[in-house]
Each structure stands twice: as C-alpha cells, then as structure tokens.
Amino acid sequence: MEKSLTNRQIALILYTTIIGYSISDFPKIASKAAGTGAWVSIIIITIFAILLTYIITKIQLINREKNFYEFNNVLFGRIPSLIIILVFIVYFLVSGSLIVRSYSEIIKISILRETPILAISTVFFMVIYYAVFKKIRVIGSLCEIYGMLSMLGFLFINFLILIKGKVINIKPIFDISEVSTYIKGSKDLIYPFLGMEILFFINLKGKESKSLFRHILGMIVIIGCMYIYVVESAIALVGVEDLVKYNSTTLNIILGIDLESLELFRRLDGLYIMVWTLNIVCACCVWTYGTISFISDICKDKKKYNLICVIVIIASFLISQYPRNIEEAKAIMKINNYIGLILVTIFPIILLITLKVKKYENKKKK
C-alpha cells in the first residue's frame, strides 16, 4: 500500500466515488421522495452520512498501523475476517464493473450509437488498468485533478440550468405539514451517498486526526450541498411532476436546453458528458483498486500485485458484459447497493462496538 496520499486527495477520492454515477439520477430520486422539499431530506441524509463517515474514519485511525484484513483478524479471528473481506471484494468488484457497463450504455445511446458496448467498455477498462497498475498515488492525483474539474463543471452547468428555470417550480420551498414526508423521504436518498466505505482500504498511517476529519467531513458537506444545488436546478427548470412522470435524468433535461446567447455552450449535453466522464473514470478506478487492495491484503505477497491487477480487470470486464441491457445492470446494481448499505451502516457500528469492548477487556487485564 502507498502511504503518501494527502488529506485533500483522500477527500477528493471520496467526492468522485460518491458523486460518481449517482449525480445524473439524483434529481428524479429526490423529487420522487420529497418533492420541492427535497433539500430538507438531503440535509437530513447528509448529517447521517457525516456520522457514518466519522465512524469509519475513526475506526481507520484507531487501526492505522494495520490493514483492513489484519485488524479484522485481530477482532474476529481468521475465518470471520476472511468472510468479511470476501464480501467487500465482491461488493467493490461488482460496483466498479456495473458502473462501467451502465455508463457505456449511456455513451452509446448519447453519442456513439454505432459503437458496440464491448468496445466502449474495453476503452474504459484500459484506462482503469493503467491507473490501478500505477497504484493509489496516481489514482489520488487523478481524483485530485479530475475531481476539481468535475466539481467546477457541474457548478457551471447547473448554473446555466438554474438561470433557465422558474421560481414557481421550486415552491413551496418548505411546507411544515410535509415534515414527516421529508424525514421518510430521506431514507430513499441513502444510496447516492454510498462510497464512504472506500475509506476502509485507504492507509491513514501518519495522518493528523483533526486535519483529516476536517477534510473528509467537510467533503461530505460539500457533496450534500452539490446534491441540493443539482436537485433545485432540475426542479426549477422542469418541475417535480415532469421529473417524476418522465423519469428524467439531468442528461435528459440538458438535451432539451438550447442556450442561443451562449454560442460556445449552446448545447450542454456534450460538456455534461465530458464532466461526468471525469467522475466515472475516477470512481471506477477507486472501486477497482479497492478490490485489488483487499485481495493483496489476503495474499500478502507484493510481487503478485501485477497479476492480481490483470485478474481483477478481466473479472470486472466479464461481469460488466453479463447484463443484457442497462435495466439488468441497474437491477444487479440495486441488489449490490443493499450489500453496500449493510457495509456502511451496520458493519462499522459492529466494528466500533467490538473495538470498545476489546479496549475495555485489555484495561481490565492490566
């Protein structure tokens, strides 16, 4: 494992992984869950995400001298820790694979209609292989540059969407009688916040706690604000009813915009795909490297890293080609997200409680 990631790189790795594929679908998910008051639901789920991220980061800092497999081995024993890491491997592998497949389908439908999915996926996996072969330092630098560019890109694009929108579409901004709907709706927004579990494979050795927490938790706040901005922009333009009725993504909305006064950015769909691709590449690199990292933790032989890279890339490519269409890919991804929800909520809490119990037992022995 490389140990030279900066706090900013870790934060932007988190950003590109969480925002990743979810950002385009998020407006319709949030609108369906809470209507024009979606921003309230997003704030609620952002606070919950901050809590989960804090717990995971705390666990990693407590066990900063050991990798994920080693400290699970200490806490639960060899067999349970092996089962746990195998679940993480499957989850990470499927996540990266199906993001590539789903996005390849979108690229094909949007701009490369005559290009086979196989060819588009192959290009993505060639880029991913190069990045993971160079290890986490290169991935960190990639996320740092691409993450900042995509952040600026999304801010700019959604600003152009916002100025074309109507204030009446976002009203009522808050309805006191709908508070229960906002709270209930927040549970449907947890899946687009999945991604903080990637912190389990990032080595935090030598990191200063306060600075790290400031960067990581601050990034979760930024992600929450970005989601609110994207949702409110989409609602302002087309309204909640149309978002839900036509199952519209941000890309669908952008296709209907023609900015005559801005010749260079008259058609935003091309720019949006470019910006979104930056996020997708980073997210897929992170999920794939996480898979390789967990397998390497089990093998403990650094010389086998290159072989593990090749095997994981081939396995990921084969998994990405398994679904017959984007609907099947999304259905499998939905099941995989259920696993992710357990790994990011229940599992960290169990880990934290076990760590506290072990610490108490050690004190008692002394």
How would you describe what is shown here?
- The chain is 74% helix and 0% strand.
- The radius of gyration is 21 Å and the shape is globular.
- The protein is an all-alpha fold and 366 residues long.
Label this structure with key terms.
74% helix, 15 helices, single chain, globular, mainly alpha, 366 residues
CA-CA gap between termini: 34 Å
Tally the helices: what do you get?
A: 15
Q: Helix share of residues?
A: over 70%
The low-pLDDT segments are none
Question: What's the average pLDDT?
Answer: 90
Structural class: mainly alpha
**Beta-strand residue percentage:** under 5%
- Report on the biggest sheet: none
Oligomer: single chain
Write the layout of secondary structure elements.
Layout (H helix, E strand, L loop, with lengths): L6 H13 L6 H9 L3 H25 L5 H9 L1 H33 L6 H17 L2 H28 L15 H8 L22 H30 L1 H6 L4 H6 L12 H32 L5 H17 L4 H19 L1 H20 L1
Helix pairs in contact: 1-7, 1-9, 1-12, 2-3, 2-8, 2-9, 3-8, 3-9, 3-15, 4-5, 5-6, 5-12, 5-13, 5-14, 6-12, 6-13, 7-9, 7-12, 12-13
Task: Provide a short characterization of the protein structure.
With 366 residues, the chain is mostly helical. The chain is built from 15 helices and no strands.
